[in-house]
Here is the input.
Amino acid sequence: MTVGTLFLLPTPLAEGKAFDTLPAATLAAARRIDYFLAEDAKTARAFLKAIAHPRPLQELQIVEIGHQPQAAAADAWLQPVVAGTDAAVVSEAGCPGIADPGAVIVGRAHRLGLQVRPLVGPSSLLLALMASGLNGQAFRFVGYLPHDANALAQRLRDLERDSRGGETQLWIETPYRNERMLEAVLAACTPEAQLTLATELTADSEVVRTRSVAEWKALKPGDRPALHKRPTVFALMAAPRSKRSG
Amino acid sequence: MTVGTLFLLPTPLAEGKAFDTLPAATLAAARRIDYFLAEDAKTARAFLKAIAHPRPLQELQIVEIGHQPQAAAADAWLQPVVAGTDAAVVSEAGCPGIADPGAVIVGRAHRLGLQVRPLVGPSSLLLALMASGLNGQAFRFVGYLPHDANALAQRLRDLERDSRGGETQLWIETPYRNERMLEAVLAACTPEAQLTLATELTADSEVVRTRSVAEWKALKPGDRPALHKRPTVFALMAAPRSKRSG
Here is the structure.
């Protein structure tokens, strides 16, 4: 008996961009598979409809893995793959297993001896880093930062300190808190630090800007990219030691 | 006068995989552009030929930026973009600005007020992380590790320690040193640590495996994926604190 393969299937970051941002091999794999492990079943169905999956949607099996899948549940969901069926893990947007709960499923797949194949697609973190101009030879993604204002300010100072050796620091925020996050960065970090805002990546409205904290502060709010409720990746890099005054 | 846009143009990781791993919008942008800033001019030309760029190759302008481009040179190369020509930064393989020298050009583009647009394509780091099953909600790419055996062993122990909080540690090696790197990890890290080897990503020969250090050690060399001269991403994650004996 041949075991199946677990594919990691990226989905578009922006509406209407499936054919622009997913390559042919990714679209072909998505259309060949009938069994999906999805962070959110509704968005998975919308995606499979958008790419014109050849089978009627109601004939596809879409298991919703939720936001904190447990190992035992993952093993049960992977049993059809052990028995020879190919499956795909699908994120709500972007690459499964990156800044989402898909990694638990993949970890169990390795333990079960399944073949795991990642497919190419858009990652907001990677696109933000590419377009930031900040160091891509050493970087760190730290997820979400604390909500408490004092804890957040301290964490932002720590991130700037951690980046002094040249490591770019990346994080994300719930989109309705983006403006608050920007204000917190401008208040906590030194004027010389470089801050990238990468907003609505791959959408027609995409904006990526890197400026120093001093330059961001000098802009009138109306000259800043609007961030409220728009998915944004933040990236930070301290000024090189020799250029810092403090 | 309208300034031009600087595109970040990914290229395939594996031979013959341009159409499988680059989406339509990336291919369309590559074919529309006549001015390229390339890490390596020869591989850039081979890529543009492979995707059937509509203009004769000798009519395209391909500037070789080398491995350590300087800011002043970057500003000169970007002058046509300031004057309204679109340009693309092209890596030797994968995403420009990630684990390659392209970020310097992008950083200067932001300073010159140019629009920067990242295009979707394959990244070996991101594909390795997706397929690893290790934590994708916090991760770090540290580039290359030291060559000296003692310094390497110490660095590997440090990386395992740094990952105890749940942060996946990713790095790369010059492909002919891959087997030596694997031996160094198996010697330096604790038996419970999880190690991913992600080899020849997107190629037909792609292999991604995650095993504990103890499991890797127990495999006969012939049962391990062959790594010599095959591009490989390494990823490491310490066992959760509660599961560690030491």
